[in-house]
Amino acid sequence: MDWSRAKNVLICTFLLLNAVLGYQLWHDAQETAGPNLDFTSLDENTQRLMEEKSIQVLAPIPGDTPQLPKLSYTYVHSGEKDDRVQLVKPVDSKLVFTHDALVEALEPQIKDIDNYQYDPLDVQEEPASGQTDAFVLHPLVQDKWPLFNVKLALFYSNQKITGYRKIQVILQPSDEAKKMLPASKALARLIDSYLPRDSIVKDIRLGYYGQTFNSDSQVAAPVWRFMLDNGKGVYYVQMNGDVISPKTEHTEGS
Predict the structure, then answer these.
(1) Where are the alpha helices (DSSP H) in the chain?
(2) What's phi and psi for 134, nearest 5 deg?
(3) What are phi and psi of 158, to 5 degrees?
(4) Cβ atoms < 10 Å from Cβ of 4
(5) For the residues of 151-189, what is the DSSP string, one character each?
(6) What band does 216 get if pLDDT is binned at 50, 70 and 90?
């Protein structure tokens, strides 16, 4: 046996193996830390506060700043929650994760479901039982932006969607479109003044939200929704920088 040649082959094999393992480690690190890699949209003071308060952001910071109008919407049934409706033909609950398949399966039983978007981070809690066995969908404004105030709840049991509760509303833009506050500036405002230590921002999403009043007619504004991990809080930041925390329904101006 040519030991010199065998040794060279082994060395090359180990080098190749190390290169493959190194690439895999780099790729895994990229996937794990992906959303956290680029904070250049945040100023240095905000990044410093993040470190001091041990705040993590596990969601990409959107860079788009579309122009959106305020919105008025009217409850069709006096703002009251509709009673739960049982589906004549239950469908597989896994369909909720695929919009087109869900629409195809439920459109014959739930009108306009094609204009609703599934929100995996929202929950529908039943007042009497406190159970949360429901998927939540929101109606879309301009076929794109969810109206967080309004929920379509799809109740499920034994891996089947068995019923739903839907609040009917009529949407109407009510103001001139204005440029949205950048998500990075909205996030900086929360980090500077609102988020407690050790907060983990799990999701950043653009949509509509407004404080609700005892009236059929409501108003919602474009907002950035910041959802914290483990249900520890949700914050809505309007285009003028005002912050709404729905747990208190209190708005604080800039």
Answers:
(1) 3-33, 44-52, 99-106, 183-193
(2) -150, 140
(3) 50, 45
(4) 8
(5) -EEEEEETTEEEEEEE--EEEEE-S--EEPPPHHHHHHH
(6) confident
Per-residue b or e along 24-63, where b marks 16 or more CB atoms closer than 10 Å to that residue's CB: eeeeeeeeeeebeeebeebeeebeebbeeeebebebebbe
Is the pTM higher than 0.85? no
Angle at 191 between CA 188 and CA 194, to 5 degrees: 120
Question: For residue 35, what are its two tokens?
Answer: 């959303």
Q: Percent helix, strand, coil in the chain (nearest 5)? A: 30, 35, 40
| pLDDT at residue 218 greater than cutoff 70 | yes
Q: Which residues, in sequence order, are bridge partners of residue 163?
A: 86, 155
Helix, strand, or coil here: 226? strand
- Cα separation of 228 and 226, whole Å? 7
**What values do phi and psi take at 210, rounded to 5?**
-155, 150
Q: How many CA atoms lie within 13 A of 184 on its CB side?
A: 15
- The per-residue b/e assignment along 154-178, b for 16 or more CB within 10 angstroms, e otherwise, is bbbeeeebbbbbbbebebeeeeeee
Q: For the ranges 12-21, 168-177, 218-227, which has the lowest average pLDDT?
A: 12-21
CA pair distance 252, 254, nearest whole angstrom: 7
Cα atoms in the Cβ-side hemisphere of radius 13 Å centred on 194: 26
Nearest to 165 by CA among 130, 136, 132: 136
Domain boundaries, the chain: 34-69+176-252, 82-166
Of the CATH numbers 2.60.40, 3.30.70, 2.40.128, 3.40.50, which one belongs to the domain with range 34-69+176-252?
A: 2.40.128
